[in-house]
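FAQ: What does a multi-protein file look like?

Like this. Sequence, then tokens, then the next protein.
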Amino acid sequence: MSEKNRFALIMAGGRGTRFWPRSRKRHAKQVLSVFGDTSLIRQTFDRVAPLVPAERTWVLTNGDSLPAILEQLPEVPAAQIIAEPAQRNTAPCNALAAHILCSVDPDAIVGVLPADHVVTDQPAFERVISAAYQAAEGGDLIVVGIQPRWADEGYGYIELPEAVTAGSLEPVKVRSFREKPARDVAERYVAAGNYFWNSGMFFWRASSFLEAVRKHDPQIATIIASLPPITSDAFPSALAETYPLCRDISVDYAIYERATNVSGIPAGNFGWNDVGTWHAVWDLLERDAEDNAARGELLSIASHGNYVDAK
């Protein structure tokens, strides 16, 4: 399979409500610079650009974020930045992308990348992502697992075979998906060594993913299949009319927890963080002797464990 068949899908439909008060309806988390000098979606694009060029990068977002994303990603053709007419979670979003990209290239291999992650080790990231693309060529649905750095109740986990080697680039069968666990359960997962954080980064052949949707979620499959090709003049109106009819469900629940052809890459630590809360931003930044962190100048007096965003 040629690398010319590789596409990137950046998912940027979230509202980022946990980043209030900086996050607003028209300025959701993904278009904000909460870590570094550029926005999270810009960082996501820059991370994948060495592997997938802008002309094969697509973005699914919402109508409120669309203007900011068009401005921040001028390299991506405007027609490839699409606003969902309604929020319907990640299963319809992924199905829509697979429908579009299968019509663009029947042999498309797609990497699904959330727009709100931070990665600090770019070379290691590229090695993992390249391995995931290659693994997806065989028809399996691939998920990137992150070796846990601590027992976190805020992440979902994937169970891999026992004695799996963290940092290996060889895909292994996923035994199960585990939703956000209680603290004691998360501690058992980390101690076991074969449970990895679910990064939310998925890779699949577009045709294989559509087949999985048809098998495991016929309601979504039927609605998405009714859409004309992306090149049709009727596509925008058909999308606006039919997409809101899709049920609201995550891709994990709808597809991955039911499919039998799911494999995971047991990645080691490449500095991944999903930046889900202000606390996560605090954790990523350098802190002073009193554990205070800031974006902008900070003079702290009798203060401990604070985060100040003054940019």
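And here is the next protein:
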Amino acid sequence: MSVSNVDKKSAEGEVAVRLVNYTDVYYGDRLSPAMDLMEATATLGQVKAFRVRPGDVVITKDSETADDIGIPAFVESSSGDMVLGYHLALLRPRDGAITGRYLYWAMSSDDARGQLSTGATGVTRFGLRRDVITSTVLSVPSAREQCVIAEFLDTETARIDALITKKRRMIDLLRERFWTGVVSAIERAQAEIVPLRRALRYITDGPFGSSLTSSHYSTDGARVVRLGNIGFAEFKDDDRAFISLDHFNQLSRHRVLAGHLLIAGLGDANNHVGRACVAPDLGPALVKADCYCAEVEGARGDADFLALFLSSPAGATHVALAARGTTRSRINLDIAKAISVPLPAVAVQTRIVSEAKKLRATAAETMDKLSLQITLLQEHRQAMITAAVTGELAIPGVAA
């Protein structure tokens, strides 16, 4: 067992390598040369110590929480330039004692994960000491039985994973169908296309720089609306942050009121920039940097309608056009004002919103059922792994 000290930097005179990084292990259960690995350099000593081989098992040794540590991945195949990166530990099976594939499944079990979680140390970030990893106790049957168990788990988990993938795809299709319906309804209105600013009374952004930082956060007081709160035409209330009322009063021009249109000024691969939602009644509240707050002119627009459009695929396209020439993952206040939006009669906007809410409620009911099924399948998968490697599950060819 060895803990890698190879960082992501490149230095002259070192050997060119491809790094197996933390996310490669955390999000993938198998490692191979076909992966898109980061290019870096390492010393000859590091290459010798941390080059991965087929049959090795790699685990994450650091985490933000103790219960999310020791995630394993199996090295299915490798190349000479595949080297383990920082925050990871390399487990190499001893010949004749344990097979790599069985070791992977054993380290995936609740039994092993529980031992590592208990042994993790830290306060704001947790890590595994070498002795905690090496003292992990595993159930190790005969070599033949290890192969039988590993083959059984390979087959059964693949079947469950395929079923989970299908259910996730069904959720995606339901979501896509909802947004297709929204865009179609808006297109049928054949409305005039205008800059967003023409539908607004005013729009403001959040305070930048030292005016509002994480050091200002408190356990209660005025609510801070952050990017995590701005979903696709829905306000996400889970991500909560507060500042003192005294500090809030100094930043009153950034105030958020119920019914205001909230627009995300920053996006990523999963959440496009320009998505929007309508603020619920949050009490004293303000927007943070990269979030915009606008009051819609009631005679011209409906905040829920504008949030629907800006959150839709069509809205994402309009935002990208307005942001042309920039990074396209961030928009400033001027770009936000210039986003082209359709503006049918307010009565038509209200009708489209009403129809969309019904469609979303129907889709949400089915998606909730599918999400529950996925959760149950994941729990069954994990329980099966644990039972198989601890001998609690009867597997043909394995002694009870």
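Q: Is there any per-entry metadata?
A: Some entries carry free-text notes. For the entry above: The two ends are 30 Å apart (CA to CA).
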